[in-house]
Amino acid sequence: MSARLIILGAGSALPTRNNFPTSQILELREKQFMIDCGEGTQIRMRQMGLKINRLGHIFISHLHGDHCFGLIGLISSFGMLNRTADLYVHGPAGIAALFEPQLRFFCEGMPFKVIFEEFDAKKHAVIYEDRSVEVTTIPLKHRVPCSGFLFREKPGERHIIRDMIDFYQVPIAQLNLIKKGADFVTSEGNVIPNEALTTPSDKTISYAYCSDTAYSEKIIPLINGVDMLYHEATFAESEKSRAKTTMHSTAAQAATIALKANVSRLILGHFSARYSNQQILLNEAKAVFENAILAEDMMVFDI
Amino acid sequence: MSARLIILGAGSALPTRNNFPTSQILELREKQFMIDCGEGTQIRMRQMGLKINRLGHIFISHLHGDHCFGLIGLISSFGMLNRTADLYVHGPAGIAALFEPQLRFFCEGMPFKVIFEEFDAKKHAVIYEDRSVEVTTIPLKHRVPCSGFLFREKPGERHIIRDMIDFYQVPIAQLNLIKKGADFVTSEGNVIPNEALTTPSDKTISYAYCSDTAYSEKIIPLINGVDMLYHEATFAESEKSRAKTTMHSTAAQAATIALKANVSRLILGHFSARYSNQQILLNEAKAVFENAILAEDMMVFDI
C-alpha cells in the first residue's frame, strides 16, 4: 500500500511568512491521522482544499502552543460542518484538563464527541491500533514531556506458494493458519516449515515523527529502518549550543539520527523563524545523510 | 490626525482560501488597538511584516471562536519575543475565566502581565480612555453577549485667533482656559464669547466596528456620523432569513445602517465562506449606500 504525508505547517514557535506552526496529516490504509495541530492548521487545510472526512485520530506530541493551539478552532469547525464521527485526541497527560473547559464553552451541542486519550510521554508503548495500523510513542528529550510517534502498517498475511500447498496436499481448512505463519504437519508427522509453503507478506510502510527533541540516540532503536523519518531541525550548526539549551536539534543532528537509524528518507522540519532561507539546514543535513529534504507548508510526500 | 485600519481577517466562522477569521488593527494617535483576534491573527501580522510594538489593548467583541481563538497564540508569541509592556484584553464577562487557565499553563514566566478587563456587552459605556482616544461599547444583537466598539479621538484644543487676543489684550495666563473653550471677561466686565476668540479644534476621527450583529436600528444613534463604519455583511439578500436566524446581517442591511447613521464610509466584512466571490455583497450594499467597500485580508484603509 502507499501512504502520503501532508505538511500543513513546517515552522516552529514563531510563525513566518511561509511557515505555519507544526501540523501534518498522514494518510495510511484509507485513514487519515493528524500529527500535532498548531495555530492555523484548519486554515492550511482550507487553503489546500483538503477533504479530511477520514480523520478520526489526532496525535499531539507535547503541550507547547505551536503544536496544539489549532485544536480548538479545528474541532469547533468540525462542529459547524456537522461532523458526526467521534474524534480522538491522543496527547500527553494533562491535555484533557487544558482543553475540555474551552471545548465545553465554545463547542457545546456539537453532534460528535471529543475523546481525549492521554499517554505517558516517557514510555514507549502502543497507543493506537486497528486492523491495519499501529501507532507507538517514541519518548523524546524536550523541556516538557514530549513524544514522537511511529506509524506502522501491520504486516498482511504471507503469500501461499500454490505448488507447494498442492505438493504436500495441505487441507483448505489449514490455509488461513499457514497464511498467518504456521508450519504444516503432514499425516506422517513431518513438520514442513512455513517458509517452504509461503513467501513473505508485502512490505509494510513505516513513518516516524520526532519533534520536538534534543539530539537523542535513545530513539535510534525505536525508529530503525523506517521508510520515512520526520525529524525536527530547528537550528543550523552555528546555533548548536542554543539547540542544546532549548532542547532542540540541529539539521546535522537530525541527519545523524537518520544515518544511525538506517532510515530510507529524512524530512527536516520545525525550522526556527530566523532562517528565511533554509538551504543551509539542508546542506548541513545532506553532508551527513544524503536522502534528506526540507519540509515546506502544503507539501505532499508519497511514502 | 490620520488613522489607519488594517484588516487581518475579513472572514467569518469558517476560514477560506482568502479570508482568515476576524481581526483588525486600528492605528490612531500613535497607538495601535486590536479588535477581535481570530485564529491566525499573529500569522497574518507576520505575513504583512507588521510591527505592533504600540499595541497595548485588545478589544474582543464576543466569545465566539472566530473572534478570539487567536488570543493565546498571539500572547504566547509576545512572551517569546520578550515583550515587557502589560497587555490589556477587554472582552465580555467570562473572558478571563475562559483564557486564564491556558495562559497560566502555556505562558508561565512571561515578562509582562495580561490583564483582562470585562465589560457588560448590553451597556453603552466608555471602556477605555486616554489623553487622546476614547473607546465606547456598542451593544449589538447576536446569539451571545456581543458588543461593537466606537473609537473616537478626543477633541483637541480650540485655535486662538491671535488678532482678537491682541485686540482684547487677553493675559497670557488665561490662554489655556480660552483654548479649552472659556469666554473672556474684560476688566470692564464685558463678556467676550469664546467663539469670537477662537476657531474650532481640528476635526476628530471616529471609527465604529459592528460585528457580529443582526440588523439593529438601535445602534444608529451610537454611530451617527462616524468617518468609517465596519459592519458585518455575512450574507446576501437571498439568505436574509438565514441572516435573521443566525443573528447576522445581509450586505444591504449593513448599508441601510450606514445610510441611516449618516456615516462617511462603510467597510463590509465577516463574509460567509459560501461566497468565494463577494461582488454580490458589494453590489447589494452599493444599491443602498454608494460609499461601500469590501474588506479583504491584509488590506489597509486610511481614515
Report the sheet with the most strands of chain A, covering strand number, pairing sense and barrel closure: 7 strands, mixed
Highest-level CATH class of the largest domain in chain A = Alpha Beta
Proportion of residues in helical segments of chain A? 10-25%
Oligomer: homodimer
CA-based gyration radius of chain A: 22 Å
Number of helices of chain A: 10
Can you characterise this structure?
The structure is a homodimer of 303-residue chains. Helix content of chain A is 24%, strand content 28%. In chain A, helix 9 runs parallel beside helix 10 (279-286). Chain A contains 10 helices and 18 strands. The mean pLDDT of chain A is 96. Chain A has a 7-stranded mixed beta sheet with strand order 6-5-4-3-2-1-18. Chain A has a 7-stranded mixed beta sheet with strand order 7-8-9-14-15-16-17, covered by helices on one side. In chain A, strand 7 and strand 8 (133-139) form a beta hairpin. The first copy, chain A, has 2 domains: 3-156 and 202-302, Metallo-beta-lactamase, Chain A, CATH 3.60.15.10; 159-196, no CATH class. Chain A binds chain B through residues 13-17, 20, 39-40, 42-43, 46-47, 49, 63-65, 69-70, 72-73, 76-77, 80-81, 98, 101-102, 105-106, and chain B through 13-17, 20, 39-40, 42-43, 46-47, 49, 63-65, 69-70, 72-73, 76-77, 80-81, 98, 101-102, 105-106.
Keywords for this entry:
10 helices; globular; 24% helix; alpha/beta; 7-stranded mixed sheet; 303 residues; homodimer; Metallo-beta-lactamase, Chain A
